[in-house]
Specification:
about 190 residues, alpha/beta, Rossmann fold, 7 helices, 5 strands, globular
Length: about 190
């Protein structure tokens, strides 16, 4: 069953390595027959949050927000790719996520975290779990942490370590299960 799963990248740094993980996951989702548009804050160019999307008059939001709102309303789930900045969520990711609320409701999320070191960004993922739940898109139980991302995935998104394909397969199986289950429940209505 085909799903729409935006892959939300959390870094705008000029020498960012997170794009490698995002490319890897977009390719794996597309190979499964899913739509996996990349949401890249470096390309969006969003200013720091002043108004949420819902606070603009209908049709009056900046074009990138209108485009994202349409994408998010049609999404079945979200896959967030996050580095770890000072043991926390990258500011670009927080800013990108905070522009929306209702568009996320009743959809699962999944967290791929990464770092250049051995911990794979898991400290940021713990804070991100609480944030995603508050936004209305609770994360699935599993994480996909990628330590030493610069060695694990090449710049084009091709994995360089065998364990990553297996781990990503299980992770994406779980996300698809939750996405399909919640999509079916949304068809019958939501609590509000």
């Amino acid at each position: 069953m085909s799903l729409t799963i935006p892959v939300i990248l959390g870094s705008v740094r000029s020498d960012r390595i997170g794009i490698r993980a995002a490319r890897f996951l977009v390719a794996r989702l597309e190979a499964r027959g899913h739509a996996a548009p990349l949401v890249d804050p470096a390309e969006l160019g969003l200013l720091l949050l002043d108004r949420m999307y819902k606070e603009y008059p209908p049709g009056g939001a900046p074009e990138p927000l209108e485009r994202l709102a349409a994408l998010y309303r049609g999404a079945d789930a979200f896959l967030v790719v996050s580095g770890e900045y000072n043991h926390g969520v990258p500011p670009a990711l927080s800013n990108t996520l905070d522009h929306f609320l209702e568009e996320y409701y009743w959809r699962p999320s999944a967290i791929c975290c990464y770092s250049a070191g051995q911990f794979g960004g898991v400290r940021a993922a713990m804070a991100l779990r609480a944030m995603l739940a508050e936004l209305g898109m609770p994360s699935i139980p599993s994480l996909l942490p990628i330590p030493r991302l610069q060695k694990a995935v090449d710049p084009e998104g091709v994995p360089q370590e065998d364990w990553l394909e297996r781990a990503a397969g299980r992770f994406l199986d779980e996300l698809a299960w939750y996405a399909e289950a919640l999509r079916e429940r949304r068809r019958g209505g939501t609590p509000y």
